[in-house]
Amino acid sequence: HRVDYLAVAYTDEGVELRKNGIKLPIMVMNPSIESFGLLLEYDLEPEIYSFGLLNHFIDFIENSNKIENITSKKIRTRIKIHLKLDTGMKRLGFEENDFENLTNILVQNQKNIIIASIMSHLAGADEAEHNGFSENQITIFERFSAEISKKIGYNPIRHIANSPTIVRFPKAQFDMIRLGIGLYGVEMAGISQNQLMPISRLKTIISQIKNVKKGETVGYSRKGIMPQNGKIATIAIGYADGFSRRFSNGVGEVCINGTLCKVIGNVCMDMTMIDVSHLQDVQEGDEVIIFDDKLTISMLAKKINTIPYEILTSVSERVKRVFFTE
């Protein structure tokens, strides 16, 4: 699919990819000092964002190079790193006033490390009200990264563009882009959603259907109160699966046979009850859509005042994944 690089949050995620036959370059965005050995063993490339981490990594490489082998794999002479710059996010990264100290360390240790890329991250690229701030971040990144490249004597890959940046600031695409949630067909800026195709669907089934009388309560803490005589269905998904408890008591909706049905009562850990009184033909075992290309992730996110990222990342590992390829 023409992907050149992969990025993971933590080292163990990169190890998992390597164990499953992934050979692409993999950047680890938040490496720990304890994981340096695994980084080298599995040919993973750390993001370096502070002097503490940089110095620890350089010391580790130097000590490792004195040993012939580590976990039966020969140490390479130069290790790739990715340099993180803080241009305004105030999360991780070197700032411009770190330039002299940073570049001196990099130049002095070129025998051990090579900078594969220089990167930063925009704090508000998904919202037009922050365009001025984003433009300033891009300017700082362009200047800072150019100064570093000049000092070290070569030009690493430069990248600052996440999914909304790709759409809103084409000039900031530089040498590489980081397409995150865009891969799932979600366009956070709300500009080009019609040009993307949602690719994920979360579904479950009806476990049981019950007749419930008007005024009877449903679920934990008796929060659900049946508004009239009708039917409820218990579906096999709960907050432990990623269906947030904030969808409780009519906030959340699911789709059965093309019809929306509201949550009644509190979402449970493993189950959720929904009101199906208005459905003419509904049976136990029927498919229930939590989200798809019609009942979208963005729609769910708005219901509970969050962002699509949280909806996607909340789907727990115990939910079975089925992958389709073209």
Return Rg in Å: 25 Å
Proportion of strand residues: 15-25%
Give the number of DSSP strands: 16
SSE ordering: EHEHEHEEEHEHEHEEEEEEEEHH
Structural overview:
With 326 residues, the chain is an alpha/beta fold. The protein has helices spanning 11-19, 36-41, 51-64, 99-108, 131-152, 163-168, 297-303, 308-313; strands at residues 6-8, 26-28, 45-48, 69-70, 73-74, 79-84, 113-119, 157-159, 202-212, 217-218, 224-225, 230-235, 253-256, 259-262, 272-275, 287-291. It has a 6-stranded parallel beta sheet. A 4-stranded antiparallel beta sheet has the order 15-12-9-16, with no helix packed on it. α4 (99-108) runs parallel beside α5. It is elongated, with a radius of gyration of 25 Å. The N and C termini lie close together (10 Å). The model has no long low-confidence stretch (mean pLDDT 94).
Q: Tags for this entry?
A:
alpha/beta, 4-stranded antiparallel β-sheet, 6-stranded parallel β-sheet, single chain, 21% strand, 326 residues
Topology readout:
Blueprint: E1 6-8, H1 11-19, E2 26-28, H2 36-41, E3 45-48, H3 51-64, E4 69-70, E5 73-74, E6 79-84, H4 99-108, E7 113-119, H5 131-152, E8 157-159, H6 163-168, E9 202-212, E10 217-218, E11 224-225, E12 230-235, E13 253-256, E14 259-262, E15 272-275, E16 287-291, H7 297-303, H8 308-313
Helix pairs in contact: 4-5
